[in-house]
Amino acid sequence: MSWRKRSAKASTSPSLSSAGGGRAGAGAESYSSFCADANVRANRAICLVRTSLSTVANEDSDMKNKSWFDFFAKSGARYTGRPITFISAVGIIVLWAVTGPIFHFSDTWQLIINTGTTIITFLMVFLIQNTQNRDSAAIQIKLDELLRATKGAHTVLLDLEELDEKHLIELKQCYGAIAKKSRAALKKGKDDTGNPFVHLEAA
User: Fold this and answer.
1) What is the DSSP secondary-structure string of the chain?
2) What is the pLDDT of residues 130-161, one digit of tens each?
3) Label partner for 18 (CA 20 to 30 A): which of 35, 53, 95, 169?
4) CB neighbours (10 Å) of residue 73?
5) Whole-angstrom distance, CA of residue 139 vs CA of residue 159
6) Residue 189: left (phi > 0), alpha (psi -120 to 50), or beta?
7) pLDDT digits over 104-116, tens only?
8) What is the pLDDT of residue 202?
9) Contact 182, 192 (CB under 8 A)
10) Does the reported pTM lie above 0.70?
């Protein structure tokens, strides 16, 4: 009886092992295909970045290759921020004030300065906003490149500016806790340098 049980177990073990081997082989195959797909996606992303970088490197710095609005906004923001522009604006206001008695401080005299300053301020809002948007985007790309190239950095922070206020507050509190521990370590005479562990979860 015991021999039959042993023989039955012996006869069923190859089928179990083959089934287990089949599942293991299927798992290995699916894992290999997953890794292959991940490598393909990573290679495509790298090729896209290299293509963009090569395009930037080969782009002519001549202003003719840029849009007229970018050229106008960049030039306007650059020239309006110079001291000579401020001095000219002050001179215009002084000249307007001096001509007041000549025009008997009429409504037309006041309307000229009011209309001129309103139009200039209205247009400068769009020029400054365009310049700030371009500079902000360039800074974000540079910071993303630093995160990507730094070993051990959390690449989940690459699109941090796209998160809502709730998640930004949570991340701020996380790094604020690290700063608090570092200040406490300095008070005890310890060093505050190093790479403390930060646990980040997907939103």
Assistant:
1) -HHHHHHHHHHHHHHHHHHHHHHHHHHHHHHHHHHHHHHHHHHHHHHHHHHHHHHHHHS---GGGS-HHHHHHHHHHHHHTSHHHHHHHHHHHHHHHHTTTTTTT-HHHHHHHHHHHHHHHHHHHHHHHHHHHHHHHHHHHHHHHHHHHSTT--GGGTTGGGS-HHHHHHHHHHHHHHHHHHHHHHHTT----S---------
2) 888 989 999 999 999 998 898 888 888 888 88
3) 35
4) 19
5) 13
6) left
7) 999 999 999 999 9
8) 56
9) yes
10) no
Per DSSP, the three-state class of 183 is helix
Token pair for 2? 């015991």
130 residue type, one letter: N
Cα–Cα distance between 92 and 113 in angstroms, integer? 9
